[in-house]
Amino acid sequence: MSIPTNLKYTKEHEWIRVEHETAFIGITAFAQSELGEIVFVEVETEGEKLSAGDVFGSIEAVKTVSELFMPVDGEILEFNAELEDAPQLLNEDPYGKGWIIKISLIDSSQVEALLSASEYEKLVG
C-alpha cells in the first residue's frame, strides 16, 4: 500500500498536503480500501471555518457511510467538484485527483503534530 512521504496523516485516515498557506485534504489508500467502492462524497461546509477534529463531510460507500474529519483548523475554500460526477476517484487516485477539500490554514504549526508517513504506516500495519 502506498503511503507518500510528502504528506501528513491523522489516526482517522485523512491526509493533508500543505502548499504555502493552503492545504489539500483527502483520505488515505488504507481508508478507501476499507470503505470499498465509493459512490458519493458530501461536503456542505464550503466557506466555513472549522477546528481540528470537526466533521467537514461524509463519504458513502456501497457498504457504509463514513464521516470526514478536519486534521487541522482551517477555512474550507473549495470542494473537489470532480468528485460529484466521479466519486470513484477516491478509490482510483486517493492522493492525487481524489483530493476532497482545499483549505486555508489558520495555524500551520498544527500540521507538524500530525503523523508522518512512517508513523502512519505503523498505525495501519
Task: Tell me briefly what this model is.
The protein is α+β, with helices and mostly antiparallel strands. It is built from five helices and nine strands, in the order βββαβββββααβαα. The protein is globular, with a radius of gyration of 13 Å.
Poorly predicted sequence stretches spanning 5 or more consecutive residues: none
| Beta-strand fraction estimate | 35-45%
Q: Give the CATH H-level superfamily.
A: RNA polymerase II/Efflux pump adaptor protein, barrel-sandwich hybrid domain
N to C succession of SSEs: EEEHEEEEEHHEHH
Q: Count of helices?
A: 5
Briefly note the structural class of the backbone: alpha+beta
- What share of residues is helical? 10-25%
According to CATH, what is the topology? OB fold (Dihydrolipoamide Acetyltransferase, E2P)
What would you report as the Rg, rounded to the nearest angstrom? 13 Å
Oligomer: single chain
Shape: globular
| Known CATH architecture | Beta Barrel
Class in CATH?
Answer: Mainly Beta
Ends apart, CA distance between termini = 10 Å
Major sheet attributes = 6 strands, antiparallel
Number of domains: 1
- The largest sheet has its strands arranged as 1-2-3-9-8-5
